Amino acid sequence: MPFPIGGDGAVQSWGVVTMKPAAAPTLIASVSRALELADAVARSSRPVPAKQLSRATGLSLGTTYNLLRTLVHEEYLAQEPDGFVLGPAHPSQAGLGPGALLARARAALTGLRDHLNAAAYLGRYADGEIEIVDIVDGPTAPRVDLWVGVQESAHATAFGKQILASLPGTERADYLARHPLVSLTPYTVRTSGELERRAVLSPGLSVDQQEYALGSKCLAVPVAARGFIGSLAVSLPMASRASAEDLAGQLGVAAERLSVTIGTEFTI
User: Fold this and answer.
1) For the IclR-ED domain, which residue ranges apply (predicted)?
2) What is the mean pLDDT of residues 24-45?
3) Which of 14, 33, 148, 149 has a CB 3.0–4.6 Å from the CB of 153, allowing a cystine?
4) Where are the domains of the chain?
5) How far apart are CA 177 and CA 190, in angstroms?
6) 139: which DSSP letter?
7) Three-state secondary structure along 215-251?
8) Same fold? 29-91, 95-265
């Protein structure tokens, strides 16, 4: 005999009520794929090229390019010369994830490179270590070859020294105890005492004159925001005649703007 069916779709059988299986939601595959690409970019601390995104998501390169163009148009992503970063419309811009920080920093570094014709760097202190957030260079403004790891060479780089100078004394002592001051060139600082002396003599500005790599010089200023300790730096060939005073002034302006952006745009 037929079973009575209630108005809500329930099937009644000998006093037992069972529900009809709910209809599967209608999914739009292209939306799911686009979100997958955006999430892959958000998880990365570096710009991600289209080919790498294609491999990571298993999408064909053609499909990847089509979806990326749409995401860029809608400002969920932005395209840089070395890959894709988050755009201003992506929801994660409200947090200090690696992709969001990279997107905010990239604009400031690109502006410095173009204006000063110098490679630009942003470093930060996180989880007890000093790390590079991003580097922006170009054909006429090449970066310094980071032939020694950042953590082992903070005492020899301008941005590393500036971050160390910004740390509380106990944290700085702990860092130096874990990372001995290794001589990288004849000009490298060799003692923590000398490192401290230079920081006192030039507060708010750190300089590397061939201490990390022969033939190059770097200047760095602090970038400070709530929960963020970092440094903005530029590097130039030693032969450059650019005024250190002018460079420091322009670096300071850029660092102040970046500090405000990080402090107001990110919830830490």
Assistant:
1) 82-264
2) 78
3) 148
4) 29-91, 95-265
5) 13
6) T
7) CEEEEEEEEEECCEEEEEEEEEECCCCCCHHHHHHHH
8) no
| CATH of the domain spanning 95-265 | 3.30.450.40
Burial of 16 (0-12, 13-18, 19+ CB in 10 A): exposed
The one-letter amino acid code at 239 reads A
**Cα separation values, 102 from 51, 86, 190, 214, Å:** 20, 8, 33, 29
Maximum distance among all alpha carbons in the chain? 97
Please choose, from the candidates 97, 90, 95, the residue with its C-alpha nearest in 3D space to the C-alpha of residue 126.
97
The Cα-based distances of 58 to 52, 78, 216, 217 in angstroms read 10, 21, 42, 43
Q: Using an 8 Å Cβ cutoff, are 242 and 71 in contact? A: no
What is the DSSP-derived secondary structure letter of residue 121? Answer: E
DSSP per-residue letters across 15-71: TEEEEPPPPPPP--HHHHHHHHHHHHHHH-SS-B-HHHHHHHHT--HHHHHHHHHHH
Per-residue pLDDT of 44-69, as tens digits, reads 767 889 999 998 888 999 999 999 99
Q: Looking at the whole model, is its pTM more than 0.70?
A: no
Task: Identify which of 89, 94, 88, 29 has the alpha carbon closest to the alpha carbon of residue 63.
Answer: 29
The CATH code belonging to domain 29-91 is 1.10.10.10
